[in-house]
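Holo model, pyridoxal-5'-phosphate. Inputs:
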Amino acid sequence: MTMQVFLNGQFVPEERAVVSVFDRGFLYGDGLFEGIRVSNGAPLRWAQHLARLQRGAAFLKIKIPFTPSELQNFAAQLLAQNNLRDAMLRVTLTRGIGARGYSPKGAEQPTVVMSLHPAPVVEPQKPPRWKLITATARVSANDPLTQFKTCNKLSHVLARAEADAAQADEALLLNSTGNIAEATSANVFCIKSGVVCTPGVAEGALPGITRGDVLEVCRKLGAPVAEEKISPAQLLAADGAFLTLSSWGIVEIAAVDGRELKSSPLLETLRAGFAKLPPG
Ligand SMILES: Cc1ncc(COP(=O)(O)O)c(C=O)c1O
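Output:
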């Protein structure tokens, strides 16, 4: 069955869902995206994903041509037209077409695309455990752009290719100071003596929506949290470590570069708390 795709206010079959070769998203990665889990017919954490997209758009000075509720209605229509209840929804926003050159002057009709993709099947009885490698590609610490899901994630692309070549499930990205920033599609957490630690956003971590959920679960449980620098050695020595991402939720880190990590019982508590969060 041909997928329907949302393109600038219209629903079109995927083969007709094409944008201009002069679109600045294509030319310069001048845009943003979101990856949203859809479960039981509804996009999860819609408001948080839209808020991150809006923050990114404000930073890049791209005017989103639809309101969040218009986009939400379009997303619901897209799910209905494709008859899907569980999927990954990708929202892409670019600055659209402009004159040749970096200047965004005159590019005033942003491109908006929404498309649906298969979602991973997470079996609660068989929670995922991933093997990671440490990528050679790095991200900059203290770079404001890392806070947004820009269409400009080439370090992440290279790191993911390294993971694929090593038959690993994911890659850890270090920042320019040698500490952990994040994984290519996930935030990194570790547990140290009962404290749930994750790199702060200034370390080059995307403020992940699932990261936010886990921090909220910790607050609800009264588990101490530290947003701090984490070195690769500290991660290896931790009592347990995990990744957070919208598509999979919480994923335990089984090993990094072939070195097995410990498994903390606190992870189960966090997983249970995460599962109990309201779906909204
Ligand atoms: C670079 C990066 N970091 C972290 C994440 C996790 O963020 P979220 O929980 O919002 O999916 C993602 C998600 O794809 C990502 O692309």
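The pocket of pyridoxal-5'-phosphate is lined by residues 35, 149, 156, 182, 185-187, 206, 208-211, 244-246 (CB under 6 Å). The chain has a mean pLDDT of 97.
Archived with the compound record.
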